[in-house]
Structures are given as C-alpha cells and as structure tokens.
C-alpha cells in the first residue's frame, strides 16, 4: 500500500512506476519535448561558447611563449620608444624582473582572387619578440628554454646552433603547430605574407614551442625577432608594450606589488610617458569591447530557451491532463498532494536535466558554426580573431545545464500544483473525461497587463548602465521589453476572445468553423498561454526585423553618402577592424602624384584611451571629409573653421557614438593623454557614423602627424579628375602596388552592406529557432486541448463528423489562435521596434537610425506562422480525431 | 414537427437493424461471441447484463463506431462491415442518434447549438434548423434554457438536451448507453418517459443499454447478455 511506505519509497514508486513508464510508453512525444528543450539550451550554450571563443582569442600571446607576464608597460596612445626599456631598467635597477619588449602587427595572406570578399582572407597576428632574451628567460613554468630545441619529432626542427642564423635572418618566422600541419610547412619553407603594403616571403624557422602551462599557440600566431618585425612594419625603434616577468618563486604577488610601487614612485615626466597595467586588465578591455554585442546575442539566444520552457510547461500540463485519472486514483489510495507535487517536480527536473544534456551536445556542435559567424562580426567590428572552433567549457556547460534544470522546474511548477490539486473524487463525479485548467488567474487580468506595459514605458527613460571599458547596458529598456512582451501576452488572450466572439457573430454555416470559434470565444487558460507564447516569439522576431530593416535602410543611406569619392586604398593586408597594416608615406605620396588624382584624403588612425575607455583618433582632411563623405550632422559645426586646415588646429569632429559614449556635446573639450603630454581639442561638430561603435574623434591629419610623429596611413581616399575612369586607375595602382587593396566606391558600398548583413546572420538563425519552437508549442497546446476534449471528439464522431472535418476544426482553431498571436505580436513588435531603435540601440551603440518597416518580411512572417499553425492544428486534429474515447494513453 | 407512428416488430419490412453472429475481441479476450438480434422500427430493446458482458461493445458495433471481428450488421439492408470509414460516418450522421451516460454535451456550445449541430452536419437550412431545434427543446422541456451552456445546466437538463440532440436529425435508431445512470431517480424517470414517448411519437427504434429495471420496463423486449453471449430474452408487457 503506497500510503504506508516510507516517503523515499513512495517517491521512487511514483517515479519508476508512473512517471518513467509514461515517458517510455509515449516515447515519441517525450523525445520531441526533450529535443525542443534541447534546441533552446543548445542555442544558449552555443552562443555562450562562441562568444567565449571570440574573447579568448584576444589574449596576451606572449603568455604562450613565456610564462604569463606580471605587468604591462605601454604608451597612453601610440607606441613606446625603445629607450623606455633603458628607462625602466634604470628605475628597477637590480630588481629580479625580466623586461620583454613586444611589437605586434597584423598581416594577411596574399590576395589570390581579385573578386574576393573583404575580410575573407586568412589574417595573422605577428608578434615581434627579442628572441635572444626570450631564449634566456630561464623560467620553470615557461617554454623559453625549449625555444630553439626540438618540439615535435615529425617536423624538421631548429637546433640551438641555429640561433645565430635566425637572428641574422630578417625573414625568419616561427609558426604554430596547427599552421604547420594545415599548410604542410616545415623549417625552411617559404611563407608568403602581406605586411603593411609589402608582399614578403618569410621563411619558417621553426615551430613555436609549447608552454606546458598555456594552451597551444593559435593557428594565426606568427613570431619574429623584434628588430626584423620593426623593420618590416616601418616602425624602427618602436614598441607596442614591454611585458614584465618576475622570476618564478614564492610570494609572487607581493614581489609584483613592490615592483609596481617602484614604478609608480619613480621620477618621470608629468604626465607619465607610459602606464602600467596587468594582463588581466588588457583581457578585460577586450572583453568589455564586445560585451554589449555578446550580451545582445545571449539575450537573443534566451528567446529560444524561453519559448522552449513554455513548451515544457505545455508538455507537462498536457501530461497532467492525460494522467488525471491516474493521479485521482493515487490520491484516493492515500498518496498526498505534496507527494504528487514533488513527483511532478522531479519529472520536470529530469526533463530539464535530460533536455539540457542533449542541448549541450547539440550546442557544442552549433557552437562550431556559431563561432564562425560571431568571429566574422568580431573581426569586422572589433578586433582580429581567427577562431574557427569553440572548445567545450565545463563552467559554461554547468551553467547551461543549471539554467535548463532550474527553468524546467519553474515551468513545471504550475502543472505540479494542478496535479497535486486533483481531487480523488474527480474520477467518479466527472466520468474522468473532463478537466479544466484551473490556474493562472493573472493571465486573464487585463489591468495587470496594462500596468506592466505602462511601467515598461516608464523604464525606457532610465539611462543605460555604464560598464567599465565604455560598454553601455540598457537594462531599463531590456526589462521594459520583457514587461511589454508579458503584458501583450496577457492582452492577446482577450484579443483571441474578441476574435472568437466576432467570428461567432458571422454565423458562418460550417460546422468545423463554428466548433473552432466556439472554443475561442471563451478561451481556456491553455489557449491564452499558447497565444502568449506566440506573441513572445512573433513580437521579438518582428521587432528585430524592424530594427534590422531600419538599420539596413539607414546603413544604405549612410553608405551611399559616405562613399562618394572614386577610389579607396588601404593595405591589402587589412582584413579586420583592428588591423595595424598601414601605407608608408613613400607609397601614398606616389599615389597622390598620379596625374589622375584631383584631390586626396590621407587617413591616419590611432587606438587611444580616454578615461580608460578605448576609442579611435582619426587624422583626416576634414574639408575632404565634408565634401566626399557628406556627413549627416547630429550637431553641425557653427562655423566653417573646422574645415579650414589653416585654422582648425585644436578643433575636432566626433561621431555620435563618441559623443554618447563620453557624454560630450558640441563645444566641449576633450583631453587626449599622449606619451609627450596631454593634447586638448574642442568639439566643433557631431556627425552620424555607423562604421564603429567605439566612436571616432577626427582631427586634421597634419595635426595628427605632428602629435605622433609618423605619417603611416591607414587608408587613402582619392577623388579623380574628370575624364579618368576609376576602374582603369584602380588597375594601374594594383599593378604598380600589389600590396595595396584598391577599391572603387561601388565595390566598397556592396562590401560594407554585405559585412553589415553578415553581422545579423546569427540573429536570423536565433529568430527562426524561436518561431519554430513557438509553433511546436502551439501544436503541443492543441494536442493537450484535444486530448482534454477527446470525449467530445468521440461524441462528434458518433454524431457523424468525419476525421477530415475534425482536422479542419482543429486547423481553424490553431490558425485563429495563431492569428490572435500574430496580431498582438505584430502590434507589440511596433513598440519593440521603437524600443530597439530609439532606446536599446541608441543606448548601446549610440547610433540614431531611420525607422523603416520591412513590410514584406513581416507579411512573410505572418504567412509562415499562419500556415505552420494551421498545419500543426490539422495534424494534431487528425491524430485526435482517431483517439479512442476512453484510452488512457 | 412531423412525428411518425411506431413501426410493427412483426413486420419484416420495418426491420432497421440486424446483427448476425457478431463477434469481437480485445487483446485476445472475446467480448462478443456470436450475438444476433433484430431491431424493428418503433421497437424498444433493453440490453442488460453485468459489467463486462459486452453491452457497450455491442452498442458501438451496431452504431458503426466499432467494427465486429466477424458476423454481419445490416442497417436497412446495408451491411455496415462492408462500408469504409466515411460511409459509416455518413450512416451515423443521417440515421443514428446516440445518448450517453455522462451526457457529453459539447461544453463550448449552448444547449441550442448542441442540438443544432447534427442538423448542421446534415446541411439542414438555417430557418428549418431554428424551427426544429426550438420544437425539440420545447418537447424535452428545456426551451427556456436554450442559451445556457452545459456547465450551467443540471444533470437532468443536460440529459434532456442530449436526447434532443440525438433526435434532432430524426434518426431511425436511437442508441442509449445507460442514459439514466448518472441521474437521480426522479430525473431518471422523467428521462425514461421522454424516451418512450419520443420513440412512440416518431417510430424511432431504441436500443437501451441499462442496469436499471425501471429503464428496461419501458422497452418491448429485454435481452440479457452474459460473457458476450445472449443469455436470455423476454418480452415486456
């Protein structure tokens, strides 16, 4: 007798003899439910893994070679002179710390296809290290000692006696084990590369040795001797940073604090010509740079999980209905309400666990695809990354599994309560056939919905949360979006009811139609939940479509305005947003002297930090910028002074993102810390710019050149004299300068749009998953409802209704439910579109967009949802019309 | 409403339903073992027997809801076992009415709409539907409750609406499975009276599955089923 058993025994009996057996007997629907939950978990897990892989790729590469450095000395803006090494050694005197000078550069594989897409070629990270000193870093936890010894038996290796040869050979490069295997390279192989505008043939000197305490070197890492790289990148005597490594041993943290205090207290020019940071700060800065992007993706991936959980709710709710008789019998045998409730919660948890584990497998596979999409976006917008695969991460897996189990328990809470509240007498009094969904009074409360929507609107006025590193998180708007979606979900039930009543009034003389609308005029709690799930999926998908459509329109306008000049030239090695490839003054001077050139804009770019936040300083010919980029002004300059190169010293133009990020307006002053002092500029105007979210500060190029003492150009823009054909001049430049990428404005417009659309590819995939899961949810709801009504169906069959007519009735019910979800979802999507465009996007990226409604996409979405919902209803109706009236399961 | 007079059980031409040696098994267990019976127009037969004796199964086979494993069921010379699913549905739609123990009114339709449903299925014009439904509801005594939903009706009222629905399309045969089984004795008696009177007025044959002696009393014949076989039958006065 169950009642007399020990609590654990009862729990076990309920699980093994009831829950488990039911799952086994209805294997297909059980697996379907698990798969749908798994898809939600997989979307979440894969995006998290892909994000992590993209951030992980931005690491201090020197840590792969030496042990992880304890500190980093770098310039506030630009590069450090080599003399800083001597200065530091002088300050640190005999302190046991190794100084490792580093120069970093990006490079790309040479072009093989003239029609290739921008950013499609392999890009490499070149690291210039003082190899002689690295070899001497005798660190127990470093690979320094193995630097010139054999590392793999299968490759031809260097021996220590070749060190001299390597140091003498300015083309010697060390490559990763992965690259050697992929391209079948070995010591002595030639390796062609584009560095700045120079096509070079490097020679493989060996394989980067493994550091036992660090992961394998990434495929795109190349290491050269420091002087060789300085020469190759036209940066003689310049360093990006100096890494400080303590000798291994105890009390490392204390020793580092001592070194730090010595550096901080050292007499130096004010402001200091260099700053000291930790490797963790550097990684954090990279992580911050992409935090908003990653967070947006994570939130979007939660959509699929959210709808998946709603499905778990529907699935469990349906199971409660199917097993109501059994529960009633168990209750009459003495099983307590609490035991029933716990059994259902255990079942929910088990679904979460099993679905979550399946989701981890799918998610890991999905991450390998997602990482490429995320990597492309990070490459295009943030920094160079070569990630091609995402490693399985135990912490992330545990988190995804935890989210799956906890949310399944939440989803299972109401069904568990419904099950627990099943009275033993129910079977006898109601014939075991009719059960009504008792819970969720809140889902019928339009006042609650109104309050949610109103308070959501209030939250949209909350300013964004400002993160360290410059990222902005529009938390108020995110919460507002959630409140609007839930509020609209509640209202959708009333809209469904209204539609049902209206259609009933039409008195259409069709039995399936009348049957369908009779169920919808007073919709059940399940109908309301189903329609709320659809509102969530449709609202978010359509809202995103409005955002993307508006973005697309704005971008097209911006691109066509901005790319007005004839030719755009950059190093052919520039393949990512963070490329350091530059054009030397000798080369761009030749370009400017070409007889076809009427006007030119030589653009110099420098990564700078203002208040610890990374942004871009751009040297530009501002008059050319006004004429050929035709900026749309957020705050137009009050006079033309800023465009007059003779009078614009100390004046700057800033992008809207910059103004938003640093909270500055026209007329404000911006102080720029540099190695040789702080410069101050006044903001003369603010323009719209969608090129980067970090923001840009534009000054006249001559001033830029004076500040930094170099003339390396990031790009050169040319306007040609009338009568010259851009394509012919382009061909000429390509022939004379094979290391340059020369693009016409029409090509660049196309590429800019392609890259923009590519960044949204992952969001489309997530939206599709959301819609598919919502339709599956509707099918589950219909199945539950029809199961609940199976006796009615049997009656209708006995009255002479055909299977086909019952299927049509179910299809109509599904279609009308979907239509209500669609109408409400589309209405809320307009509000969400506004929120995304004017609040979330503006607060996150600082971009003002022109609203545009992609009507065709919205119509296509509506048609897909209606057809899928009708089809789902029809199939479920077909299945239900054949259900025996009294079959248990 | 055009009400027919009761048929004559002695007249072969009034035969509406004939079962011959019907057998049916579920999961290897024989539920019906060669049952034969005739049902004439206007005739009322009570099918009695203990639980599990095969009463409901026989009713389902006669109503074309279930198919016998062997044997034959003729509905007005139409062999039901030869018909496909759609044709069987057509027979039920046009010629058979069913009443259940638990009423099984459709909860989202009003009493009026429940009764109207078979007429809609038979494509009766709306104006005629209105007249017939009102007339039937009046006849069973629940006209004033026409706009009520099943949840707002008492058990007796629900069963009256169910009877009106079963009679709406003027079926030749009315199959009733324990129609008073879920009612108190007063309401049960009212329902039995109603069934007898309607059968008499319309000439509809009634096959009544029941455990109740009172219910059996309204029938012309009583057939007793035991272990899937006819264990005996008797004529009532």
Task: Give the secondary structure arrangement, pairings included.
The complex is a heterodimer of chains A (889) and B (237).
Chain A: H1 7-25, H2 27-56, H3 62-65, E1 71-74, E2 80-81, H4 83-92, E3 97-108, E4 123-129, H5 131-136, H6 163-168, E5 172-175, H7 177-182, E6 190-195, E7 198-207, E8 221-225, H8 226-232, E9 238-239, E10 241-246, H9 252-265, E11 275-277, H10 279-289, H11 291-322, H12 324-332, H13 337-381, H14 394-420, H15 426-430, H16 446-459, E12 465-466, E13 472-473, H17 475-505, H18 511-521, H19 525-562, E14 567-571, H20 585-592, E15 597-610, E16 613-620, H21 622-629, E17 633-635, E18 651-655, H22 656-662, E19 669-674, E20 677-687, E21 696-700, H23 701-708, E22 715-720, H24 726-736, E23 740-744, H25 745-759, H26 761-788, H27 790-798, H28 803-845, H29 855-881
Parallel strand pairs in A: 4-8, 5-7, 16-21, 18-20
Antiparallel strand pairs in A: 1-10, 1-11, 2-9, 3-4, 3-6, 3-10, 5-8, 6-7, 12-13, 14-22, 14-23, 15-16, 15-22, 17-20, 18-21, 19-20
Helix pairs in contact in A: 1-13, 2-11, 2-13, 2-14, 2-26, 11-14, 11-19, 11-26, 13-14, 13-25, 16-17, 17-18, 17-19, 17-28, 18-28, 19-25, 19-26, 19-28, 26-28, 26-29, 28-29
Chain B: E1 15-26, E2 29-40, E3 44-48, H1 55-62, E4 70-75, E5 78-79, H2 85-95, E6 96-99, H3 111-121, H4 126-140, H5 155-167, E7 173-177, H6 185-202, E8 205-209, H7 213-217, E9 221-226, E10 229-235
Parallel strand pairs in B: 3-8, 3-9, 6-7, 7-8
Antiparallel strand pairs in B: 1-2, 1-4, 4-5, 9-10
Helix pairs in contact in B: 3-4, 3-5, 4-5, 5-6
Notes on the protein architecture:
The complex is a heterodimer of chains A (889) and B (237). Chain A is α+β, with helices and mostly antiparallel strands. Chain A has 4 domains: 1-59 and 284-439, no CATH class; 71-277, no CATH class; 457-562 and 755-889, no CATH class; 567-723, no CATH class. Chain A contains 29 helices and 23 strands. In chain A, the strands form 4 sheets. In chain A, strands 14, 15, 16, 17, 18, 19, 20, 21, 22 and 23 form a 10-stranded mixed sheet that branches. A 6-stranded mixed barrel of chain A has the order 3-4-8-5-7-6. A two-stranded antiparallel ribbon of chain A has the order 2-9. In chain A, a hairpin with a 2-residue loop joins strand 19 and strand 20 (677-687). In chain A, helix 2 packs parallel to helix 13 (337-381) and helix 28 (803-845) runs antiparallel to helix 29. The two termini of chain A are 24 Å apart. With 237 residues, chain B is α/β, with parallel strands linked by helices. In chain B, helix 3 (111-121) packs across helix 4 (126-140). Chain B is globular. The model of chain B is unreliable at 1-7 (pLDDT under 50). The A-B interface holds A 430-431, 433-434, 507, 509, 511, 514-515, 518-519, 521-522, 791-792, 794-803 and B 63, 65, 85-86, 89-90, 92-94, 96, 98, 100-102, 104, 106-109, 113, 117-118, 120-122, 126, 165, 182.
């Amino acid at each position: 007798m169950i009642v007399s058993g020990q609590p654990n025994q009862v729990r076990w009996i309920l699980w093994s003899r009831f829950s488990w057996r039911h799952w086994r007997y209805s294997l297909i629907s059980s697996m379907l439910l698990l798969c749908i939950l798994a898809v939600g978990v997989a979307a979440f897990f894969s995006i998290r893994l892909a994000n992590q892989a993209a951030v992980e790729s931005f690491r201090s590469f020197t840590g792969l070679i030496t042990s992880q450095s304890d500190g980093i000395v770098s310039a506030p803006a630009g590069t450090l002179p080599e003399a800083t090494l001597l200065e530091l050694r002088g300050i640190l005197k005999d302190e046991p710390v190794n100084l490792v000078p580093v120069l970093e550069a990006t490079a790309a594989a040479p072009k093989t296809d003239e029609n290739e897409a921008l950013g499609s070629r392999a890009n490499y990270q070149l690291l210039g290290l003082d190899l002689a000193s690295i070899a001497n870093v005798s660190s127990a936890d470093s690979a320094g000692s193995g630097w010139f010894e054999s590392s793999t038996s299968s490759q031809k290796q260097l021996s220590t006696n070749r060190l001299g040869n390597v140091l003498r050979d300015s083309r010697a490069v060390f490559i990763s084990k992965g690259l050697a295997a992929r391209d079948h390279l070995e010591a002595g192989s030639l390796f062609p590369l584009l560095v700045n505008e120079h096509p070079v043939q490097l020679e493989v000197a060996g394989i980067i040795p493994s550091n036992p305490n660090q992961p394998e070197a990434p495929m795109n890492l190349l290491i050269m001797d420091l002087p060789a790289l300085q020469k190759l990148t036209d940066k003689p005597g310049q360093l990006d940073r100096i890494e400080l490594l303590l000798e291994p041993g105890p009390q490392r943290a204390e020793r580092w604090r001592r070194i730090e205090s010595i550096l901080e207290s050292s007499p130096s020019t004010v402001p200091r010509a260099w700053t000291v940071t930790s490797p963790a700060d550097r990684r954090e800065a990279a992580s911050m740079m992409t935090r908003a992007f990653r967070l947006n993706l994570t939130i979007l991936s939660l959509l699929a999980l959210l709808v998946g959980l709603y499905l778990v709710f529907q699935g469990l709710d349906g199971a409660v209905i199917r097993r109501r008789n059994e529960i009633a019998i168990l209750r009459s045998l003495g099983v307590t309400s609490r035991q029933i409730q716990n059994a259902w919660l255990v079942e929910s948890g088990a679904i979460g666990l099993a679905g979550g584990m399946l989701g981890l497998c799918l998610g890991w596979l999905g991450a390998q695809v997602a990482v490429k999409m995320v990597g492309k976006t990070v490459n295009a917008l943030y920094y160079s990354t070569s990630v091609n695969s995402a490693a399985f991460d135990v912490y992330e897996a545990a988190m995804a599994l935890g989210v799956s189990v906890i949310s399944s328990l939440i989803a299972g809470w109401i069904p568990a309560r419904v099950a627990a509240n099943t009275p033993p007498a129910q079977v006898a009094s109601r014939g075991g056939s009719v059960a009504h969904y008792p819970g969720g009074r809140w889902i019928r409360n339009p006042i609650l919905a109104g309050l949610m929507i109103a308070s959501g609107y209030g939250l949209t006025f909350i300013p964004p949360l400002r993160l360290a590193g410059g990222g902005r998180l529009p938390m108020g708007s995110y919460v507002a979006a959630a409140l609007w979606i839930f509020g609209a979900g509640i209202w959708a039930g009333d809209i469904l009811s209204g539609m049902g009543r209206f259609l009933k009034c039409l008195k259409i003389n069709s039995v399936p139609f009348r049957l369908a609308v009779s169920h919808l005029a007073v919709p059940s709690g399940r109908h309301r939940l189903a329609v709320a799930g659809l509102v969530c999926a449709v609202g978010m998908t359509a809202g995103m479509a409005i955002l993307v459509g508006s973005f697309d329109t704005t971008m097209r306008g911006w691109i066509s305005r901005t790319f007005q000049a004839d030719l755009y030239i950059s190093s052919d090695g520039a393949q990512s947003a963070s490329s350091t490839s530059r054009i030397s003054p000798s080369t761009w001077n030749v370009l400017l002297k070409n007889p076809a050139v009427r006007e030119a804009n030589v653009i110099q770019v420098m990564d700078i930090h203002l208040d610890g936040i990374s942004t871009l300083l751009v040297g530009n010919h501002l008059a050319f910028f006004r004429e050929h980029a035709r900026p749309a002004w957020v705050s137009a300059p009050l006079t033309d002074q800023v465009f007059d190169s003779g009078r614009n010293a100390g004046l700057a133009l800033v992008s809207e993102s910059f103004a938003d990020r640093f909270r500055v307006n026209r007329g404000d002053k911006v102080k720029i810390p540099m190695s040789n002092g702080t410069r101050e500029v006044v903001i003369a105007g603010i323009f719209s710019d969608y090129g980067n979210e970090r923001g840009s500060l534009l000054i006249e190029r001559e001033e830029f050149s004076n500040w930094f003492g170099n003339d390396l150009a990031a790009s050169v823009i040319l306007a040609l004299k009338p009568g010259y054909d851009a394509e012919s001049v382009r061909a000429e430049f390509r022939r004379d300068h094979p290391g340059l990428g020369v693009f016409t404005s029409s090509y660049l417009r196309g590429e800019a749009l392609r890259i923009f659309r590519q960044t949204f590819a992952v969001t489309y995939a997530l939206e599709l998953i959301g819609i598919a899961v919502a339709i599956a949810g509707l099918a589950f709801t219909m199945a539950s409802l029809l199961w609940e009504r199976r006796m009615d169906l049997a009656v209708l069959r006995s009255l002479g209704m055909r299977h086909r007519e019952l299927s049509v009735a179910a299809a109509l019910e599904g279609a009308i439910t979907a239509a209500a979800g669609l109408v409400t979802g589309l209405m809320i999507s307009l509000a969400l579109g506004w929120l995304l465009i004017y609040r979330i996007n503006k607060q996150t990226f600082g971009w003002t967009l022109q609203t545009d409604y992609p009507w065709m996409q919205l119509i296509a979405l509506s048609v897909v949802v209606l057809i899928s919902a009708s089809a789902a209803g029809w199939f479920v109706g077909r299945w239900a019309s054949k259900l025996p009236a009294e079959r248990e399961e | 409403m055009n009400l027919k007079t009761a048929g004559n059980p002695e007249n072969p031409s009034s035969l509406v339903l004939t079962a011959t040696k019907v057998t049916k098994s579920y999961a290897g267990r024989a539920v019906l073992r060669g049952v034969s019976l005739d049902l004439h127009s206007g005739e009322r037969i009570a099918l009695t027997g203990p639980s599990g004796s095969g009463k409901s199964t026989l009713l389902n086979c006669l109503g074309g809801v279930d198919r016998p494993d062997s044997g034959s069921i003729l509905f007005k010379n139409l062999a039901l076992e030869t018909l496909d699913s759609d044709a069987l549905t057509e027979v039920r739609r046009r010629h058979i009415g069913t009443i259940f123990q638990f009423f099984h009114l459709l909860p989202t339709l009003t009493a009026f709409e429940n009764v109207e449903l078979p007429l809609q299925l038979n494509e009766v014009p709306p104006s005629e539907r209105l007249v017939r439904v009102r007339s039937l509801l009046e006849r069973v005594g629940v006209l004033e409750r026409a706009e009520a939903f099943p949840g707002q009706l008492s058990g007796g009222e629900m069963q009256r609406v169910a009877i009106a629905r079963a009679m709406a399309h003027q079926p030749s045969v009315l199959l009733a499975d324990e129609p008073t089984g879920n009612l108190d004795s007063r309401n049960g008696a009212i329902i039995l009276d109603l069934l007898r009177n309607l059968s008499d007025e319309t000439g509809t044959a009634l096959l009544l599955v029941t455990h109740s002696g009172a219910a059996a009393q309204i029938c012309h014949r009583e057939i007793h089923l035991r272990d899937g076989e006819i264990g005996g039958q008797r004529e009532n006065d």
